[in-house]
Amino acid sequence: MAVSTDAPADNLEFARKYRFNFPLLCDVDREVSLAYGACAFKQAYYANRVTYIIDEMGTISKVFGRVDPKTHAEEILALL
Q: Given 7, 9, 50, 68, which residue has the most CB atoms within 10 angstroms?
């Protein structure tokens, strides 16, 4: 699952364009982004790209504080 601060219509278009096969959740109020440190403040124009690996028990097992979209999928697959 992914979280974005963009509006639902924008996220739907983005997910369709890139053929996502997972949910893209909207955090327009930035509550989740603030809680996980992706946004520094509520009025931030955009969220930083970060990834949290959360196990089936709800425990954060890994944090990627900096994400390069070009290589991140390979990083995640190598970890899993």
A: 50
CA–CA distance, 49 with 55 (Å, rounded to integer): 20
Q: What's residue 62's pLDDT?
A: 94
Structural domains for the chain? 2-79 (3.40.30.10)
pLDDT digits (tens, 9 = 90+) for 22-44: 889 999 999 999 999 999 998 88
Kindly list the distances between the CA atom of residue 30 and the CA atoms of 9, 23, 40, 46, 71, in Å, as whole numbers in the listed order.
17, 17, 10, 9, 26
**Share of residues in the chain with pLDDT > 90 (%):** 75
